[in-house]
Description:
Layout: H1 16-33, H2 37-61
Helix pairs in contact: 1-2
Amino acid sequence: MAKYDKVKVINESPLGWVFFAAYIGAVVYFFQQNPHFWGFILALLKAAIWPAYVVFEVLGALGVK
């Protein structure tokens, strides 16, 4: 292997903009409930974590334990 081989990395995600829009929408939704500085920080955290709760509930409804 040569010392300076080039590696091409492709960073494409066709649904990345959808996930980003959902994250921004969740931040706006959670921030409206507590419109202060710490409410904004908490909204950022909640927006990052809520999909895990959705997956947990869906798997629970499907009977996966």
